[in-house]
Prior knowledge:
The complex is a heterodimer. By secondary structure, chain A is α/β, with parallel strands linked by helices. Chain A has helices at about 35-50, 65-70, 85-95, 110-115, 115-125, 170-175, 190-200, 230-235, 285-300, 315-320, 330-335, 340-350, and strands spanning about 55-60, 80, 100-110, 130-135, 140, 145, 155, 160, 180-185, 205-210, 235, 240-245, 260-265, 270-275, 300-310. Chain A contains twelve helices and 15 strands. An eight-stranded mixed sheet of chain A has the order 2-1-3-4-10-9-15-11, sandwiched between helices. In chain A, strands 12-14-13 form a three-stranded antiparallel sheet. In chain A, strands 5-6 form a two-stranded antiparallel ribbon. In chain A, α1 (about 35-50) crosses α7 (about 190-200). Chain B has four domains: about 5-205, Pyruvate-ferredoxin oxidoreductase, PFOR, domain III (Pyruvate-ferredoxin Oxidoreductase, domain 3, 3-Layer(aba) Sandwich), CATH 3.40.920; about 210-390, Rossmann fold; about 405-480, no CATH class; about 485-600, 3-Layer(aba) Sandwich (Rossmann fold), CATH 3.40.50. Chain B is about 40% helix and about 20% strand. In chain B, α9 packs parallel to α10 (about 290-305).
Amino acid sequence: MSQLPMAGAPANVNLVGLAKNDYRGNPTTLCQGCGHNSISNQIISAMYEMNVLPEDVLKFSGIGCSSKSPTYFMNRSFGFNSLHGRMPSIATGGLFGDHKLKGVAVSGDGDTASIGMGQFKHIMRRNVNMVYIIENNGVYGLTKGQFSATAERGLQLKKQGTNPYMPIDLCMEAVISNATFVARSFAGNPKQVKELLKAAFAHTGIAVLDIISPCVTFNNNETAYHSYAWGKEHEEPLHDITYIPPRNEIVLEEEMKEGEIREVAMHDGSVIILKNLEKHYDPTNRFEVLHTLEEAQRNNWLATGLIYIATDRPTLFDTYQLVDTPLNRLTEADIRPAPDMIDKINALMF
Amino acid sequence: MNKIVNDFSIIVGTKNGSGSSTANNTILRAIFKMGIPVSGKNLFPSNIQGLPTWYTIRASKDGFTARREEQEIVVAMNPDSFTRDLASVAPGGAFFYSDDIKQPITRADIAVYPMPVKKIVRDDHSIPSDFRDLVGNMVYVGVLAQMIGIDTETIHAALSFHFKGKQKPIDMNFNAVKAGAEWAKTNLQKKDPFYLEPMDKTDGLIMADGNTAAAIGSIFGGAQFVAWYPITPASSLAEAMNDYFPMLRKREDGKYTYAVVQAEDELAAIGMAVGAGWSGLRAMTSTSGPGLSLMTEFAGLAYYAEVPLVIWDVQRIGPSTGLPTRTSQADLTFASTIGHGDSESLILLPGNINECFDFGWQSFDISERLQTPVFVLSDLDMGMNQWMSKPFEYPNTPMDRGKVLWEKDIEELKGNWGRYLDKDGDGIPYRTIPGNKHPLSSYFTRGTGHDEQARYTEDQVVFHRNMERLKQKFVTAKKYLPESVTHMTEGAKVGIIAYGSTEAAINEARIQLENEHGMKTSFMRVRAVPFTPDVDEFVKAHDQIYVVEMNRDGQLHKLLSLAYPESAISLISVAFGDGMPASARWVRKGILAKANGVRLARKSTATKKKAVKSNGSKGAN
């Protein structure tokens, strides 16, 4: 790559010659202490550390607090803040323009679990090559504090009273809909968020990242599932996760000793290392995955980490066997049939 | 009895799902191959199997292709519609029916021909028993061929085309045709005056349906991304793209320069198309009324964020689910301001098969030039029925990709550009396309308020300025839209304005109006909204303008009245919507009724004025 730094290049630039500032966006307009801001910062760090060119990323979002956040990171990337619940369709079409680009999409629990549930499930089964982040706080912030579909039954909110309905588990929905990468994290655990973001970005196909991201204004009572306090108390990481980029540029901080270590090889040569904590957990076994999610639900655990991964499924763009040149770079000669074809077509009509 | 040659209609009544479409298309194509102008219309139910369905065929030596309301020859194959079919034969007409239908013949004013269809099929041992019902329809083709004079060679040609040269089905069906013809030759005596005789009036023409033409035209327009959701009567448009893409865009490396995605619903279909249009692809979707309702949200976004894409609406009759298999022109006002808030649409209105093809490719140029959705309003009659047509013509202009800045352009501008900046004063800004690697090329697209640099803003001055620019863009649009098709008649004070598939009926009605009622008319078929300047001229040039359309409320009439308020008093609505394709008869009657209305109204105003003068009363109403 032409932009590899020369010897003696400034130390604060990455392998593509960019400083961390090149990954920043506009100042946030969300509340102070909002979990979403912490996630934006981890996206900036992850992209910087992974040496991603911002021009190779397309940002997508729907509508809501979370969907505003693509303006708070990576100003040099194209972005589309679309319609409520419709981000997946915009992203699907948008990425067809240049299949070499990678999507980074941010949605919320309202945007995904309520109005956008249909499109969410269908982008899973199409395996669009994109990171799908859900900043999940169990509440509608921009409209001032209504329940969302991921809010737990019995949650009490100031103006709304008590939530009478059962919550939707978006990780379970994603696994059931045949997503190829499903992870959950907690905005209060930035290190894990960053490692999972890197792994998600390295994944080829759809990577869902459900991040519990407390709403400090409308849903942060200590007993609420989407609060900082509850998350810290009930988080049960399935494993310690470490993402190792291709070509071994980063050396593991500590050597892994115990037998409970699992490596997952990604398409680009990178590796995710999962160090199991309590017990053996196999994120490639869908049967076990669903069992674990059910178990966590029954025990009130916030199971975090890489929940499911399948690396053997073609992406949407593989399925369509597109030409190597991005479709949006094709010229008239590539896409308009030659003049003699008109006679052939007319001959085919009766 | 005087022979009536090449000027009558046939209607065939069958059960849906009985395979009759092969038989009916065969008759249609065979007549076409005989050189006789012909048209066919499938009047089918929203059902897979069992409900009554009809197919009308009109042979017309004078080249009239509109639906006729009378039919001289009726073929009844369905016991459920037998009584109705029998009653529908014009006096002096002919009635063919399958003799296993044991129902009374109550007409003495027509020629009646029972056909032993089941027996003929059973006696032909070359037909496997499980094909008997399907092939049975070919027997009436044979009987008709013998009785009215359809050339069996042309029937064979039609079957070869239908079965794409596959010998076995061709032979099996042709044998049934021959068996029917043989039986008729031996057993029936001609008692009606209807005959077909070869002509040369279809030389150089093709037969195609509008959806296929639209699909092929779009491919010649360089379509790259199609997202769709199944809906009658639009499904066959996207399916035709799937059929013709492989041949027309074949590459040696076996890879694809296009994608056709069947979405989970119309919301996603247009969403994907908007995404693809945004990222620089020639993107489209196709739907019908109920789908268009669902697409409203994204259409508004694409208008405001200025994303090019093409939306085909093959209209069926609504409101709501309406009649899914019946035609209409009732989505026009809806499409013209689709979406909440102030919004406008560019609409193309094809009127025949050639225009379905032409607007297929032109719509992309217009959409990318103006950076806005282009709606193409076809209808079920045009989209799904077979029409005679001139051959498709290769695009006569190179592609217009509009104002796009790539890396070198941004470099030349030193990054000094704005996505929504009206640099050229025509309301059309410049855009960059995702994948552009220049660090200053990107912008953030949104449906929220934005400034010239695409940044979020709530500033009322900036918001207003942007909306005014959008309006300016639609004024600019007029010079890129297709002009109307106009037939001026010398000395005519009466004008007719219409759009879409009604032209055949209107042209036929105009001849009747002039010959039988002394009413000379000029005719304009509008091909785009907003209206091109020639529409204004036409409106001004006539004292009375009848606006003829297939809907209840006179939607084109409304749009014309809004566009030309000073002429609104001379615009008279002739609107009718029952789901059936326009006929010359309803056009003629509709215009005459309104003309009489105008006359009566004038008379009564005159009388009233007199009355007021004479006795000073306050008016009689």
